[in-house]
């Protein structure tokens, strides 16, 4: 199960993580976000122990998405060693996201 991150715990959960982290920026009302969720669940199983998958509700946490220039959702931010190293906007096939993860691990 993906961890929930917020503006207040983002530094601890994402930037200070010892593993790469994917942050899924989503909202309850976003249809494409719901399409992406099962893909991320599969990837979480595929990369268990190698990456952390986190979800952030942009309606409840506006600061972090703004800090990273997120204008559309769903957006996945890829972090390694406390730095954002990649970004994926929109719904894409599982293998596209897996390819980005492979570059991190």
Uncertain ranges: none
How many domain units? Answer: 1
- How many individual helices? 4
Question: What would the average pLDDT be, to the nearest integer?
Answer: 96
Sketch the topology as an H/E string, one letter per element.
Answer: EHEHEHEEH
Strand content: 25-35%
- The name of the CATH topology is Glutaredoxin
Helix content: 25-40%
* CATH homologous group name: Glutaredoxin
CATH class assignment: Alpha Beta
- The chain-level structural class is alpha/beta
Question: How do the helices and strands line up, and which of them pair or pack?
Answer:
Layout: E1 3-4, H1 10-15, E2 21-26, H2 31-46, E3 52-57, H3 63-67, E4 75-80, E5 83-89, H4 94-104
Parallel strand pairs: 1-3, 2-3
Antiparallel strand pairs: 2-4, 4-5
Descriptive account of the structure:
It is built from four helices and five strands. It has 105 residues and is of the alpha/beta class. The protein has a single domain (3-104), classed as 3-Layer(aba) Sandwich (Glutaredoxin). The longest helix is centred in the middle third of the chain and has 16 residues, at 31-46.
Task: Put the structure in a nutshell.
This protein is α/β, with parallel strands linked by helices and 105 residues long.
Defining key terms:
single chain, 105 residues, alpha/beta, Glutaredoxin, five-stranded mixed beta sheet, 4 helices, 36% helix, 26% strand
């Amino acid at each position: 199960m993906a961890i929930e991150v917020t503006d207040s715990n983002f530094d601890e959960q994402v930037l200070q993580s010892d593993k790469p982290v994917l942050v899924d920026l989503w909202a309850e009302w976003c249809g494409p976000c719901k399409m992406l969720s099962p893909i991320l669940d599969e990837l979480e199983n595929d990369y268990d122990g190698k990456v952390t998958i986190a979800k952030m509700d942009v309606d409840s946490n506006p600061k972090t998405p703004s800090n990273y220039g997120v204008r559309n959702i769903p957006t996945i931010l890829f972090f390694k060693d406390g730095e954002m190293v990649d970004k994926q906007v929109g719904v894409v096939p599982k293998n596209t996201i897996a390819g980005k993860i492979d570059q991190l691990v």
